[in-house]
Amino acid sequence: MAVLENIDIRDILPHRYPMLLVDRILEMEEDRIVGMKNVTANEPFFMGHFPEYPVMPGVLIIEAMAQVGGVLVLKTVPDRKSKLVLFASIEEAKFRRPVLPGDTLIIECKTLKRKETVVKMQGVAKANGQVVAEGIVMCKLVDRPAAAETQG
Description:
Elements: H1 6-12, E1 24-28, E2 32-38, H2 58-75, E3 83-95, E4 104-114, E5 118-127, E6 130-143
Antiparallel strand pairs: 1-2, 2-4, 3-6, 4-5, 5-6
């Protein structure tokens, strides 16, 4: 049973299709979160990566990891509608095996260090019980820019 469904995630993260890479949050504690991404054959990136052998780009696996971590960070911020979590860095990224259509990514992030506006997390992504990617993700909490005024 999910802790947060997709509609709840969309209330926390500003990402939308095709860049929202978290389908559910399965577990959430103060300093740990587990999210899920169903990887379907219909993902837009498979059209060019690679048409004959579709593989999820590693950068998108890391982005999914950062988004799962972003849910954890924003869930604890009282005025989260006025904030964004920006991906600041990745350290020690390793890719262990390809992620293919039909895989379900289970992504776990644990907080290593948290300051007022910076959070460092250890992320691990698994598919079929095997580690597919891991790394240390750093995110920065910033004020969301005011909506651009329309010119008329």
